[in-house]
Design brief:
Length: about 550
C-alpha cells in the first residue's frame, strides 16, 4: 500500500450555477497545489456546478456551459504537471431514464483520463438525487499513478455494513472496489453540516479505513448554498483510521498529505458543538447574502434574545457597517425593549433607527373597527402590530436595497408562535433551526466575540412578544426547557406522543397539545423565509409534510 504521492485536499466554496467562478476556483487551487508540491489535487462533489444544483439540471443549456467551462479548465491546466479530481455532471448516455450523471472526473495535463459515475443516489432529508441522476451500474478502479485507487462520490462511501445497523442500499461500492484491489480510497463530497455531523463522518470513515485496511482521503465542500451550510472539515486517514491531515471547518482551505509517509497538514477544528453552530450560522448568512447579490441587511431589534443573537451573527457575516437595526415600539412595548436594543446596537457598532408603530396601529384600528363591530379584541389586534412591523421592515428593504433578516427561532416556528406577513417577513430566517434554549447558549458565544454587546438584562427578562399588556411567551407555551425536548423528539426523531410523554415524564395531554400545534402550523412554515439548517431535521426542504391532512397520532 505504497503511494509515493503528495495529495492536496482542495476545500472550496462554490456558488450554484456560477460555472465560470467555480472553474476559476479550481484553477487557482490547482496552481497552489502544484506550488505546494502536490501531484494530485482533490476537489468536492459537483465542484463545477455547485451543490445542490437542483432543477438547474433540467436545463439543456447547463450541459453546454459545463462543456465550455471544462474545456477552459483543461486548456488552462494542460501545462501543469498535476492530476485534478473533481465533481461534475455529464449527460446520461442512455436514451431512457434520467438526464444526467453525477461524476468524478480525473483530468491530467488537459485530458480526461478517467471518470467515475456515482452509484448510490440519496433521496432522504435534504437530498433528492434520484430525481435527477442516473446511477452507475458498475464502477472501476482508478490507476494513480499505476496504483489502484477506489474513487467514490459522497454517498458511495457512506454505506459500510460494518457501521450501520440498517443500511439504505444493498450495494457497497467501497467494498466492491476494495475487493478489486484498491490500495487507497479517495472520496469527494458535498456533505451538509448539522450538529454532530463532523464527528459522525470521522467515525464512519475510521471504521471504513480499519475494516478494509485502506488509507483514505475525504474532501468536502465548504460554504452556504440556500438552506444548507457545508462545513468542509476535509481529512485524510491512515489504514488504522487515525487522522493524518485535516482542513479547517467553515472556511476554504488547502492541505497537503502523503498517504505513504503519513505526513500531512493539521488544521484546528472547532471542538465545541455550540461554537460550530455559531460559525455555521455566520457562514450560511454571509454566503446567502453575498450569493444573492446583497451587501446590506436590516432586522427588527426588539431588545429580546432572538433579535440580539441575529444581529450579532449578521455583524460577523457582513460587518457592522452593513447592518441596520430597527426598533419598532408599539403601544405595549416596555421601555427596556428600546433601551436594550439601542445599547446593543451601540456596542456592536451598527446603525440603529426607531420607527414607532403606535400611530399606524391606532389608524388601523380606526379603519377596521366599523367592520369588526362588537367583536372582542383578540389575537387579531396583536397580529396587526406584528404586521405593521413587517411592513416597516420591507419598506426600508425596498428603499435601501437591503435584505431583511427574520429573527424567529425553531421553537416558535414549530408551534406557530409567529405572525405570517409580520415577524416572518424577510429574505433569510437566520436562527429558524435554533431551538430557544440553544439561542441563549449561542448568545453567550456572541457576547464572548463581541465584548458583551448583548446586555445582561436581555438574558434575564422573560421572553415576550409584547403585543398585549404584560404578555409573556409562557402565557401561551410551556417553558422552553420543557417545550424544546418535546419538539426535538417529535420533529427530529418522529416519536409518537405517548412515547415522548413517557420518555420525558410529561403529561400526555401536554405533549399532544404541542404536537397538534406543530401539525396545524405547517401552512405557516411553508410560507416562511428560507432558514439555515443546523440540526438533523430542519423545517424546509428536508421536511416535507402536507398542509391539508388529517392524520392524527
Amino acid at each position: 500500500m505504497k503511494f509515493p504521492m503528495r495529495f492536496a485536499l482542495a476545500q472550496i466554496n462554490t456558488t450554484v450555477g456560477d460555472l465560470p467562478g467555480n472553474i476559476d476556483l479550481i484553477i487557482a487551487m490547482a496552481r497552489r497545489a502544484l506550488e505546494g508540491g502536490a501531484k494530485a489535487a482533490v476537489f468536492p462533489e459537483l465542484a463545477v456546478t455547485g451543490y445542490p444544483p437542483r432543477d438547474l439540471l433540467e436545463k439543456p443549456s447547463l450541459y453546454e456551459h459545463i462543456s465550455e467551462e471544462e474545456a477552459r479548465l483543461a486548456a488552462e491546466t494542460a501545462a501543469l504537471d498535476i492530476t485534478l479530481i473533481y465533481g461534475s455532471v455529464r449527460p446520461s448516455d442512455l436514451s431512457a431514464g434520467k438526464r444526467a450523471a453525477n461524476v468524478a472526473v480525473v483530468l491530467h495535463r488537459g485530458e480526461e483520463v478517467f471518470r467515475q459515475t456515482k452509484m448510490l443516489l440519496p433521496t432522504y432529508d435534504v437530498f433528492d438525487e434520484g430525481r435527477y441522476f442516473l446511477p452507475a451500474e458498475k464502477q472501476e478502479l482508478l490507476r494513480l499513478p499505476g496504483k489502484p485507487v477506489a474513487l467514490t462520490v459522497c454517498e458511495d462511501a457512506w454505506n459500510d455494513k460494518q457501521f450501520w445497523e440498517r443500511r439504505l442500499y444493498q450495494r457497497d461500492p467501497v467494498e466492491e472496489l476494495a475487493g478489486a484491489g484498491a490500495e487507497l480510497l479517495v472520496t469527494i463530497n458535498a456533505s451538509p453540516f448539522h450538529i454532530g455531523k463532523r464527528e459522525l463522518r470521522r467515525e464512519i470513515f475510521a471504521a471504513t479505513a480499519r475494516h478494509h485496511r485502506l488509507p483514505l482521503i475525504y474532501v468536502n465542500q465548504v460554504g452556504g448554498n440556500d438552506q444548507l451550510v457545508f462545513d468542509g472539515s476535509s481529512f485524510a486517514m491512515n489504514a488504522e483510521g487515525a487522522v493524518i491531515a485535516s482542513a479547517c471547518s467553515f472556511q476554504e482551505d488547502l492541505v497537503f498529505v502523503n498517504p505513504e509517509t503519513g505526513e500531512g497538514d493539521r488544521r484546528e477544528n472547532l471542538s465545541d458543538a455550540n461554537e460550530s453552530v455559531y460559525e455555521a450560522l455566520a457562514l450560511g448568512t454571509r454566503d446567502y447574502i453575498r450569493k444573492c447579490g446583497f451587501r446590506q441587511v436590516l432586522l427588527g431589534l426588539s431588545g429580546g434574545i432572538d433579535s440580539s443573537l441575529t444581529a450579532a451573527i449578521a455583524v460577523d457575516a457582513v460587518g457592522p457597517e452593513n447592518v441596520v437595526g430597527v426598533g419598532m415600539p408599539g403601544p405595549y412595548s416596555s421601555p427596556s425593549s428600546v433601551t436594550d436594543a439601542r445599547a446593543m446596537a451601540e456596542r456592536l457598532g451598527i446603525r440603529f433607527e426607531i420607527v414607532d408603530i403606535t400611530g399606524g396601529y391606532e389608524a388601523m384600528l380606526k379603519a377596521l373597527d366599523p367592520v369588526f363591530g362588537d367583536l372582542p379584541r383578540d389575537v387579531t389586534e396583536e397580529n396587526i402590530q406584528a404586521r405593521l412591523r413587517g411592513v416597516t421592515l420591507m419598506s426600508l428593504s425596498n428603499k435601501w436595497g437591503a435584505m431583511v433578516l427574520t429573527t424567529g427561532n425553531k421553537s416558535e416556528l414549530a408551534v406557530g408562535y409567529c405572525t405570517l406577513y409580520g415577524d416572518m417577513c424577510g429574505g433569510l430566517a437566520v436562527i429558524s433551526d435554533v431551538p430557544k434554549t440553544l439561542v441563549y447558549e449561542l448568545a453567550r458565544i456572541a457576547n464572548k466575540r463581541h465584548n458583551n454587546a448583548i446586555p445582561e438584562s436581555v438574558f434575564t427578562k422573560p421572553p415576550s412578544a409584547e403585543l398585549r399588556p404584560d404578555q409573556k411567551d409562557s402565557d401561551s407555551l410551556p417553558e422552553y426547557h420543557v417545550l424544546d425536548p418535546i419538539l426535538r423528539l417529535y420533529v427530529e426523531d418522529y416519536l409518537p406522543p405517548r412515547q415522548i410523554a413517557e420518555q420525558l415524564e410529561l403529561p400526555l395531554d401536554l405533549v399532544r397539545d404541542i404536537i397538534n400545534k406543530v401539525d396545524q402550523n405547517e401552512y405557516k412554515r411553508q410560507q416562511a423565509a428560507p432558514g439555515l439548517k443546523v440540526t438533523s431535521k430542519a423545517f424546509g426542504i428536508g421536511r416535507r409534510f402536507p398542509i391539508a391532512q388529517r392524520f392524527s397520532q
